[in-house]
Amino acid sequence: MIRSIRKFLLVNLLLSIVIATTLTALGNYVLDQKDIQDHLDALLSQSGLAFQALVGEDFSPAHLMTIQNQLNTVPTLARQFYKTLDNPFDYRYEDKFQFQVWDKTGQLLIHSANSPLEPLSSGTEGFSDINIHKQPWRVFTVRSNKTGLIIVVAERYDIRAELGHRIARDDLYIMLMIYPLLGLLIWVIIGKGLNPLKKIANEVSHRVPTYLKPVDLRAVPIEVKPLVDELNKLFLRLQAALEREKRFAGDAAHELKTPLAALKTQAEVALQTASDEDRVKALKNLISTVDRSTHIVSQLLTLSRIVPDESHALQDITPVNLHRLAVEEITQAAPTAINRNIELELHCNDESITIEGNSTALSILLRNLIDNAIRYSTKDSIVRVTIAAENDRVVMIVTDNGPGIPPELRSRVFERFYRILGTKQTGSGLGLAIVQQISMLHQAEVSLGTPVDGKGLEVKISFPQQIKLFT
Questions:
Q1: Crossing angle of helices 74-84/61-72, nearest 10°?
Q2: Model pTM greater than 0.85?
């Protein structure tokens, strides 16, 4: 588990930098060694050719002796000279670069002060390698065609390697000095980058439970925006859920206040009634009031469950066969219809008509339409359910021969708890509100009209066969 993003990034970035710089240093070391060898070979060859030019063709033993004596004093003079410099360099290199001059008879004529007396070259002109006293040397040999003199310039390989090692060591020291600074810079930069997360965390942590407004996305980095966006969607869903709960509590309190008062009144009447006939009548009224309260609570719970939240308009979408659904709901409503001597009819020209939707919600929708039609129809009448396909849509029509709804009130009957004045049938005023809510969830259109015979109410719902999901 990652305990800290800052520590995780710091450790891994530093580790990545160390690995990258180490590989770079190794690659540079290999390339530098090759470049150093090429450069030193060039200097070696130039030195050999320069010595050949200095020796010349006209020389005598006395002149060579004088040169040798002067060469022998070079180390002492060099040390004295180095001491006079403000920034003296390391003169340990002086005894690692040597030269020799041989004549054609194999006699050593002159040599550098610390040069070995044995030959540094096998006589092969150009570059060659040789071991002297278990030390490998890089040798450049040049022969004069006129004098036959052999000029040998040699350099020990350890000095070449030491030069490369020094360069690599200096680079390593610099990197080790830079790493702490890099760590500090990375720590500060990561802290700056994580500041928006801290601000968001502080904003959310200091909110009161009921404050569910979205977090401002203007100051949120692009990488964190999807997380904050999902958090805002969660806030919206929670806010919608709280509003539904408040609305349910308010609706329940509003609608149950009257039935509960009626229950109390009917109970008091039953207690105070002396005759059995009046007591039975009071108890029947009590049962009727309980039934109405039960219906109101059921409708309220149904409406609360089907109200969509902000992120998912409809869930559990499956293919629903409307003919099969209508048969089930008509069967459930048959006892109530029989009690009122109402005939239920189903007309469907294609029993395979199917739409995409939530089967439970569609059952509630049709159940409310059939229940309303039975409630408001007169006895010895017909409630008709029609299902048909029209072009690319599917329509469901429920008709009755009740009093109908005046055109000027048809838009208001979808309001929650609205009931037309003078309505004698019991109800909660939620049935058509539930129908409209479920229709909206299924992207269907609801319309109210008058049947062809001019009497009653026709409720027509037009469904799309496929629901477009919005996320």
A1: 40
A2: no
pLDDT along the chain (471 residues), means of 10: 72 85 82 81 84 72 77 74 63 64 82 80 82 84 83 84 78 84 85 79 76 74 78 80 69 60 75 80 79 68 56 68 90 84 89 85 84 83 89 88 73 58 49 79 85 83 70 42
Q: How far apart are CA 449 and CA 355, in angstroms?
A: 24
User: Does 359 lie in the same domain as 287?
Assistant: no
| Nearest C-alpha neighbor of 431 from the set 413, 443, 449 | 413
Of 253, 272, 306, which one is at a domain's C-terminal end?
306
- Considering the domain architecture, whether residues 349 and 283 belong to the same structural domain is answered as no
377 and 446 assigned to the same domain: yes
Task: Please calculate the CA angle 378-381-384 and round it to the nearest 5 degrees.
Answer: 115
3-state secondary structure of 13: helix
Both 334 and 459 in a single domain?
yes
Return the closest-CA partner of residue 236 out of 307, 306, 308, 311.
311
Same domain flag for 261 and 335? no
Q: How far apart are CA 164 and CA 33, in angstroms?
A: 6
At which of 283, 306, 329 does a domain end? 306
3-state class of 413 per DSSP?
Answer: coil
Domain that includes residue 325, residue range: 318-464
Shared-domain flag, residues 31 and 99: yes
| Dihedral sign from CA coordinates of 195, 197, 200, 202 | negative
Whether residue 151 is contained in a domain is answered as yes
- Residue 201, in any domain of the structure: no
Domain count, the chain: 3
The Cα 165–Cα 175 span in angstroms is: 15
Strand 108-111: give its sheet, edge to edge: 108-111, 97-102, 150-156, 135-143, 126-132
The distance of Cα 459 from the centroid of its chain, to the nearest Å, equals 47
Nearest Cα neighbor of 405 from 448, 452, 375, 342 is 448
CA distance 99 to 44: 10
Say if residue 274 is in the same domain as residue 375: no
